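Hey, why these numbers?
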Amino acid sequence: MNIILVITNTRGKNLVFISDKGEPLQLKSAIIAAKHGTIKGIYIVRRGTGTYLRTKPYIPEDRELETLSITSRKLISYAQDARHVQGILSLNNYIKFYASSFVEGQAYLLPIGQPKTLRVLTATVKARFVVHKKYVLSAAREFFIDPTMLGAILIDEIARLSPFENIIDALGGDIIGWNVSIGVAQIKIDTAHDLIRKGIYHPDPRDARLPYNRLTNAGRRHLYDYLIQPKHNVRFAAAFIRFVIDFWAPYIDISTRTDIIGTLYHQGYGKPKMNPKADERGKQIAHEFYQSAKRWMR
């Protein structure tokens, strides 16, 4: 098999390799595959600082590992909004591979702002959503919000993340070190920490380490272990929605404005105003994804 995409950290260290079969391989697994000759065009380098993979000299430039690499930060940014990263060869290769799996006539969702090549099968999103339905219902009750609205926001996040989900799962804790979004509801680590500090939601009141006075990488890793759990991830999402509704309440009641809450969910809670405007993503959440959530939660 060939490598079509390499995910690195911000220092350029290779973390995950994606094969032309769509299989994500962590560095250790990729080294084993290279040792057995399963991966074409690369060889193993052993140094005092560790073991690495390098491209063989005869390989064309467009297939070199360095050419095929992208940082985990850029990958996740692209997954959230395809307009953030353009013209990257490695991503183009992966997206072509992803798009080739579609069969004409299949029902799909296409999040606003994403190219058609990143459409997601409706059945895939539904299957992922239904698994978390119980958390959506319980979190909505706990924070007194519309469960269908919470579900619609999750559908938006699931659909955007889906083409890259296996890769991000393979990265695991290696994405720690910046304010990355985590889990099914794509909660930012700093947002979760802020909600804990405000007393809106605490994943484990017995955990004396939370909240931190200042988040370090160790603190982010500790909080990541909570955020990666769907039961907490969805509750953080519900807690954020509750906070946004209350924050805007002195100016306007947005508790039933799914389009506005959907907009603020990805933009941040912003500065309240009497006549807020939803963006296109918020409108899609309020109409298309709200109707899907209503059907799937029955």
